[in-house]
Request: fold
Amino acid sequence: MSGIVFLLKKNTNSQNGIFANYFPIIERTQDKLGIIQKDVKEIKETTKSIKQDTKEINKKLDNIEKKINQTPKAKKNIKKIDYNLMFGNDGMIQISFMPIETAREFFISEDGKNYRSLGFSDFIDQNTGLKSASNLFKFTEYKFIEKKIFIKYLDINNNSKGPFTISLDLKNEFLKNQKDQIKKYAKWVYYDLRDQYYGISLRGLLSYRCAIKKIKIKFDNSSIKEIQFPTCDEKFSKPRKNSYHQHQSKVLKLYGSIRFKRHPNKIYLSQKIENSNFEVFYHPSDEINYKKYLYVYHPVINKISIQVFFFDDESTIFRTFINPKSN
Reply:
């Protein structure tokens, strides 16, 4: 008995205990329990980390949701119907309507009360199988006023949409239309290759001059010159004219139409323009009148580069035009 007590005392301070020393299965079990305890500890730390990450993610999501709520609803930003305005002669104005979906029929009103159909064209709309709805409305207005037009339409399912109010500032619309013509369609420089009239014309720009604030122009290897365009503001207080290419700018008159040959009539006198290669020819009985047509001479120009600055401060890049006879 005393021997057993001695053995117990001897193994009391061992790491795994007396029973583990004498029963290996108990020792292995204790080892596994230690591993499990270690794994449990790591799981707790991982869970704590996940909770922290989740908390941060939720915080970010709350911020995103807050920003989304502060953003206007997408529906409010959708423009239901657009339009295009064209100015013709004798006060005629044409507006075409462009909804974001197929329309079966358009209805127009100028007072917001009485609507009438714009009718149909002779073409078949492939979306509906019916005649295409006419989207054009023409009216006559000489003054640069503010005007409202009201438009409704039937969609492909015959549902009524609108009315939509289109507010037109005809002065601003006119300037935007002229700007669009210059950027997309106008021929800025025209070379006249006929022997008698050999020269160039900038009428393609001057026809839409009301939309131009200034131009920068360069002939061949000369320095760039800047030309200010006269404003049309005074003209806008009067009925709209068919053309505004005429003006009283002395500098701009030199660039409107240029001949590469001096006046054929030897009777005519010429006056050189200071700091330039321009010469203006005139009859001895007259004086140079910048309000009338001028015969302007300049030595042959083989290359012209022009940059346009518009009324709204938008500008183009330089466009270059080559004399066909120089090739």
The longest strand covers residues 146-155. The two ends are 127 Å apart (CA to CA). Residues 1-15, 73-78 have pLDDT under 50 and may be disordered.
